[in-house]
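Progress note, project year one: complex with NDP.
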Amino acid sequence: MSTVLVIGAGGVSSVCVHKMAMNTEIFSDIHLASRTKRKCDAIAESVKAHTGNDVATYEIDAEEVPAMVNLISKIQPSLVVNLALPYQDLPIMDACLEAGVSYLDTANYEPKDEAKFEYKWQWAYHDRFKDAGLMALLGSGFDPGVTSVFTMWLKKHKLKTIRTLDILDCNGGDHGQHFATNFNPEINIREVTAPARHWENGEWVETPAMQVKTEFDFEAVGPKNAYLMYHEELESLAKFNPEIERARFWMTFGDAYITHLTVLQNVGMTRIDPVKYQGKEIIPLQFLAAVLPKPETLGETTKGNTNIGCIATGEALDGSGEKTFYIKNICSHEAAYKETGNQAVSYTTGVPAMIGSAMMVQGIWSGDGVFNMEEMDPDPFMEMLNQHGLPWTVEELDGPVSF
Ligand code: NDP
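Model obtained:
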């Protein structure tokens, strides 16, 4: 039985709060605060309709640390679940430290003026959380999050060491729009327009964005082009598995998405530096995000499946030589919408955020300091994935990937 405070009221938050309200034996008292209270109220209304349970709502600017400290002190939760944007990670961590409460998020801190996707700023908080006897768990979404736990599960149960790792993220859903992103457009476009980076022989290898691609036949989706990208879990996976020779991340994009993005990039609409317009400074990408469809509105029209997983090759635990395993989850957009009113990209992030929170508030995962998912026992988390809507499968492949 525990009290939680969730920050942010987008698609991911909506799924997480619905799932928490379906598990009141773990989350007995749920509070939701965000910049726009109306969005919190809409989630609370939907939760009431779906589960019959109440969610208390508040308006907060999470970048205002004193206001956050007041809110946390008033509610006295055992955990603050940050499902706002990466820009708010550090102010929310500061507020947690001041109010003496543990912290969880799904995406690493981003400075507003640079697309970096690095853990260094949050790892620098380790000693402060440790000294305060508090825990901060970073990246409890799907990727990062489940992909990190999948990898560590393989390393616990199948492979002694991992030589190569490929993370394959496919969204085979169709939302019927010309161009829309499935999670926050600003963060999504910053991520895909950044140079690709993968880990090879102890160093980062950089290639231009969206240049290296492979075709892969995804179960429950079909063949798709997957592009090499940088993704933040590569940093923690390489740190906690120093034996890895090569770790790569691939994401699928349709031709229409690539064409739209290329045009937007060529005309300067994805820039994150300020531009003077009619005497006012605007950030082109923020303006673009404001005119694109909101991810939380895509649920009703999105059809198809997501398929996200990891292929790892390494020395088998049982001493039988080199083996390759593929571990993945397939999630239906329609089923996710029916259960929570949100499409599968929000669902596959919001459910692991709920599970990570459950691990922490029940003391199944514990520690003083700042932790990544790779540092925790994968088994109880994997069990909850099966029970709460993200079942996974593991199979042995004939050999390492050929791409
Ligand atoms: P949305 O843009 O739909 O929602 C973000 C929410 O945060 C909005 O409600 C927004 O408020 C709120 N917010 C923004 N700024 C502030 C602020 N200063 N104070 C309080 N609230 C604020 O995003 P998503 O739900 O799609 O994504 C949420 C998070 O999940 C992001 O950090 C994203 O990077 C991460 N993510 C992680 C994934 C993973 O697998 N690990 C995958 C997908 C997403 P308002 O309503 O006023 O705009």
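The chain has two domains: 2-138, 146-342+387-397.
The longest helix spans residues 344-361.
No further modelling is planned for this target in the current period.
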